[in-house]
Design a protein that fits this description.
Layout (H helix, E strand, L loop, with lengths): L36 E6 L14 H9 L9 E3 L4 E3 L7 E6 L7 H17 L3 E6 L5 H6 L7 E6 L19 H6 L4 E7 L9 H9 L3 E3 L1 H7 L1 H6 L6 E7 L21 H14 L1 E8 L10 H20 L1
């Protein structure tokens, strides 16, 4: 066999086998999480104000992530001359999804928070796959007994609505809910553009909470190094990435697409810089609604940015 170039063991191509995130081990017992990074699905989309479908985000991102599984021998980046995601850099597990109770936002959010707390109690870093952006609310709630952190948001929309027709936990509210927490030290809101779901008063409120708001055009004019200089150095960072922060030409599969968005490398370089100047202690990626993108490229983008960010988190820590 070897004379024909065959390796021993299974080839295990991306489309073969069960579909955990990156084909990393599945850990269904939340009391037995033993990992550096733990991935949790939050397939909740009742917080949407327009197009639903992000409940299918975690499943789509997991399927797309198998393309980048590489047999867990690591992923070599020739520009950095670094092999990321090697087994000796850290252990990654997928703990499945939080249980979602249809039409019950409160209980669904509580179940998501329970999953994130289980990850934190195990000493691992949570990576949460949304779901709409409201799932960030229970994610942030789960950090109530952790050390303070700075929140970095990549998004087309400010998401700083206080209350709208009695709703305080929809996908337009999460950054407001986060800013109210005494353990959230500040916010960097990056990519905010065009007509927003947040009125001017929300922008004024965000700035009064100490938020630094930047559009894509402002980001590009400054350049990534200058943007990183505006984010406090040496801090713990919680990162929340709304896929609509990217341009819909590369990420059409989302509920509220907004033209003028980021390209892949702009955000990869931002994440790379964050892992070098501080430490990412939690991350959610939300609003992937795969049924609006028959090519699957939105889910592929989500998986690619997540795995490349996780690789840098583990390597630079």
């Amino acid at each position: 066999m070897s004379s024909h170039g065959y390796a021993s063991g299974r080839l295990n191509l991306p489309f073969v086998g069960l579909c955990s995130f990156g084909k990393y081990p599945y850990q269904g017992d939340w009391d037995a999480i033993d990992a550096d990074i733990a991935v949790l699905g939050a397939p909740f989309d009742f917080g949407t104000q327009y197009r639903p479908g992000a409940r299918f985000g975690p499943r789509a991102i997991r399927e797309a992530s198998t393309l980048f599984s590489f047999g867990h021998a690591g992923a070599y980046d020739h520009e950095d001359d670094i092999t990321y995601l090697t087994e000796d850099q850290g252990r990654i597990v997928d703990i499945g999804d939080a249980d979602i109770i249809h039409t019950d936002t409160e209980q669904s959010h509580a179940n998501i928070e329970k999953g994130v707390r289980a990850i934190l109690n195990a000493g691992a870093i949570p990576i949460v796959l949304g779901g709409d952006h409201s799932v960030n609310i229970p994610c942030i709630n789960a950090f109530s007994d952790q050390e303070p952190f700075h929140l970095v948001q990549v998004d087309a929309h400010l998401d700083f609505v206080d209350v709208r027709h009695g709703v305080t936990a929809g996908h337009g509210n999460p950054m407001r809910r986060a800013a109210e927490k005494d353990y959230v030290k500040g916010l960097s809101q990056i990519g905010i553009r065009n007509v927003s779901s947040t009125a001017k008063e929300g922008y004024d409120d965000a700035r009064s909470f100490g938020s630094d708001i930047m559009s894509v055009r402002q980001f590009r004019k400054l350049g990534v190094e200058a943007v990183l200089d505006r984010i406090p150095k040496g801090e713990r960072y919680y990162v929340t990435i709304d896929i609509d922060g990217f341009d819909p030409s590369i990420a059409p599969g989302t509920g509220t697409p907004s033209h003028g968005g980021f390209l892949y490398y702009e955000i990869l370089e931002l994440m790379d810089g964050l892992t070098k100047q501080g430490s990412i202690i939690g991350l959610d990626l939300v609003e992937v609604a795969p049924d609006y993108d028959q090519t699957g490229s939105t889910a592929t983008l989500a998986a690619q940015i997540l795995l490349n960010t996780i690789g840098r988190m583990l390597y630079h820590r």
